[in-house]
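Quick note —
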Amino acid sequence: MAWWRRLVESEHLVLGLAVVCFGVMAPFTPGLTSGENLANLALTLLPLYMVAMGQTAVMITGGIDLSVTSIMAVASVLGAAVMSGEQGWLAGHPLAVPVGVLAMVGVGAVMGGLNGAAVVGLRMPPFIVTLTSMIFFSGLAVWVTNSQNIGALPAAFNAIGGRAWLALLVAVPLAVAMHLVLQRTVWGRWLFATGQNARAAKISGVPVGGVVVSAYVVSGLLAGVGAMMYTGQAESGSPVLGQRLLLDIVGATVLGGTSLFGGRGSVVWTLYGVLFFKLLDNGLNLMGLSHYNIMLIKGAVILVAATADAWRRRSTS
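Predicted structure written out below.
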């Protein structure tokens, strides 16, 4: 095998690219290596990684979840409606924060389950189902709040997203658990089998329908976790939370090496993709590039990653 082919197919290629990206931009980007910037980078990386992990589970089955940002918006306003000190349903109650957190994660899982049930029950393409739910959930979040943020959230909740050690305390156990579940459990093997060949998996006894639904439940649940962190950072529930993050979520997942065609993926690879994407985004912002130029560059990176995925698929088939 040629060296370049081994390089392209390496599981750690994107991590290497992230290191190279950081090393190349550091001398020309004021503030990139400062402690404050690196801390902010870590804080914004973790919630994106949570949502991208859920996207990884769905993509391994051969699907895609375009509704995760709208699920985040609904979870954000629901949690804020429970906890807000001004107008919350449990304002001032000692259980406001735990109930609010459970509401955010729970509604995410339910909405993910609805997506999965629609994909399996209606036998419709995941792209269409989740595009439709993205529009519906986004409109729902704006309608119930009159497009207004909900503030006055408890300080204990805001700390979950605003303090790096607390965010790590949430993210690391979830990432380790997700990795072990994917690599060492029957459910994990069923996910990969479904994505590689759903018909063959079904003949072999894999409950394909249930596996697909469960993948969307996990995606919705982790979108709720991501919403919890982003809402804590913003210190308010927002009906448009995550509106500009879909490209980052899907892009980082694909860039990490999870296949758009299903049957291949890893939360470790997704971490590499998120790290590279956040480093690139952060560096370009600090260089003073416009939003449109940054979107162009990120789009080009995703195109390269998708092309590499298609090449890998052809070379292994």
